[in-house]
Model the fold of this input.
Amino acid sequence: MLTQLERSILAKEARLGVVGLGYVGLPVACSFAASGYDVVGIELRPERVAQINAGICPIQGHEPGLAELLAEVVAAGRLRASTDASDLGDRDVILVNVETPVDEEHVPQYHALRGALASVGRAMRRGALVIVESTIAPGTMRDVALPLLQQASGLTVNEGFFLGHCPERVMPGRLLQNLRSVSRTVGGMTPETARAMVALYRQIVAADLDPTDCLTAELVKTVENAYRDVNIAFANEVALICEAIGGDVWKVRDLVNKSPGRNMLLPGAGVGGHCIPKDPWLLVHAARGKDVPVRLVPAARAVNDGMPHHVTDMVVDALAEAGLAVAGARIAVLGYAYLENSDDTRNTPSEPLVQRLRALGAEVVVHDPHVAEYAGPLDDALRGADAVVLMVRHDAYQGLTLAPESGAGSRPVIVDARNVGLGAGAPIQRTIGRGAGVTPAAGDGA
Done:
């Protein structure tokens, strides 16, 4: 069966299903459809299904090529969306892309994954290949996905159906580009399954496709995001030290990175998105009960989660220097998405900042050109502001100079949490990682 499936994949006769049409599933479905496959996407939100079937992209923000590609493949009849999982019954390959959050105790919550896999199991035909692209804790394919699919389908893995894990490596703003140009770890329950998966992904991926087992694929994805989280935390902790002793982390970083083998990352207001705040905890979860002294990853998470609160403290201190109390102050927060030029607000650092400022009695006005709820005129957000906080490096904020004539208050306090250079000319300005009174270098923040 698997050999025949591989032949149909190479001939582009295989019929594909994609479960979950969000930031990952939608570009995946569009990419395979553009490559010549017949694709059906399953999505629980009827309004999103209606948009997609009308050729309208539901993902906003700067996402090069996606809206055009979606319109093209829908018009060509190669992609359609449905809320009915039974439409997967004639699919040869089914890719699962659903959220896998963690709870307050950092335990994986697989409600969406379990629901999706149960629906897939009940609907899938004999001989189908199921690929989980969602990021999951190491061991989840063996302990959750496999038994659930077998139970729901009544079939046996490697006989009645085939199973693999190929975690996504995409980022908002570069979804299609990442799909095409970033390597993938292709984990199969057997080497033969991994080989068939490589044949499939080769149709849309120009980079390396590394066949391996499911556990290794699970580990690779969670480790790579934990690695990034730890390195961001290091940059943030250095920024805090520099602020405290009157240094400039931006100068320090530039010079550190001139030393061979060093690549200090950018500090900032915190870490957001669906992946990095969560995936390190998925890795840690795999070690629970294994007598492993896990210390570094939780420490990094604490540093990064604490950055929005540090920005709040910067605002309070700067207002006090201006002779203003935070209670009653009007504060404009620029940027609510977690990433520049994106509409993705998942785990955004701006949320805890806004919550804490409001808890302290401030009047907070949020602006974000890519988030519909906050996309009003920028001048309206700035008008009468006692303080302006830059949280996201959106292109719309690059080169923005805030002075009294721009609509801000007569003595605006500027807190630049992304080193954009927002506070040029402001009476009181603070930049994350730069000690009070430190003069930025020429062109800094540009």
